[in-house]
Design brief:
The chain is an alpha/beta fold and 285 residues long. Helix content is 27%, strand content 21%.
């Protein structure tokens, strides 16, 4: 990291006239596959904030798994996008509804998961499922043990039904990514939005909801100029965010992203293993 950026990260006052709205994916962008955040990435994020930019997170993670990353980064953005756009959190510590981190739910989109779960289940003999409610509580079926299961309970499949949710996660250990993509394409999931991960898992959100729809709400709240938007990510759930940002601003894909994701971005940086986000953030004025 440059000496100038290091000074900014240390808290030196910096004049700024044109702040950017910067939205960062977490896994594969800010954090390595192991969940570790490198000191250089952390310092680059803090330096961008010190220069006056609004640096926020836009992730598929739940709010509970997101604010721990914010704490590690040492940032308190005005807004945070979680659950692939289905939930927006707003920093408002004076609100009586604020959680221990000082945030309240600013916007939430829900859907009833019954139809989509009943459609998927016959196609996946070894499927595992997780649903998330607006308050952050989750329910999951047997086998979802590699996921963050804080504030969650294991239930039978039928207990996933009947209550609106902000997110459904489906995992199929019996398929590889290509096979899973083929199976999903044959299911006819028309009433929801979904993104397939790097392995055989899928995030399902309300129809028409993704990171870009939530970020447009945030942009309007902050009155941020479209030409001063920067987003960075590496997954298929970032494609809509890239398309939204690159029309006037900057959309940056991490080097390890799949080809379809790289093609949607306007810029490509080094992979997360090389802390590619650092060089992107260092270009901010």
């Amino acid at each position: 990291m440059s000496e100038q950026v290091a000074e900014m990260a240390a808290g030196f006052p910096v004049e700024h006239t044109e702040p950017w709205l910067v939205a960062l994916d977490i896994d594969g962008t800010v954090a390595h596959e192991s969940g570790r955040i490198s000191p250089d990435v952390r310092d680059a994020v803090r330096a961008a904030v010190a220069r006056g930019h609004e640096v926020m997170l836009a992730t598929g993670r739940s709010w509970g798994a997101t604010h721990t990353i914010m704490s590690e980064l040492g940032i308190t953005p005005k807004y945070v996008v979680c659950a692939n756009g289905a939930m927006i959190m707003r920093h408002d510590p004076s609100s009586p509804e604020a959680d221990p981190q000082g945030y309240v739910i600013d916007h939430v989109e829900t859907f009833l998961p019954d139809d989509v779960l009943k459609t998927i289940r016959p196609h996946l003999s070894d499927g595992r499922y997780l649903i998330e409610y607006p308050g952050g509580f989750r329910r999951y079926t047997e086998g979802m043990y590699e996921w963050d299961l804080n504030n969650a309970e294991q239930v039978e499949f039928e207990e996933l039904l009947g209550t609106p949710v902000i997110r459904v996660v489906v995992v199929s250990p019996e398929h590889d990514e290509a096979e899973f993509s083929q199976v999903v394409s044959e299911m006819g999931l028309h009433q929801v939005a979904y993104a397939i991960g790097w392995t055989a898992w899928m995030d399902i959100a309300p129809l028409g909801v993704n990171k870009s729809t939530a970020l447009e709400i945030v942009r309007e709240h902050l009155n941020a100029p479209p030409e001063r938007i920067l987003v960075a990510g590496d997954g298929r759930n970032d494609v809509e965010m890239f398309e939204w940002a690159r029309e006037h601003g900057r959309a940056v894909a991490m080097g390890q992203a799949p080809e379809a994701v790289l093609a949607a971005a306007g810029e490509i940086t080094a992979g997360v293993a090389e802390d590619g986000l650092v060089r992107v953030l260092d270009t901010l004025p």
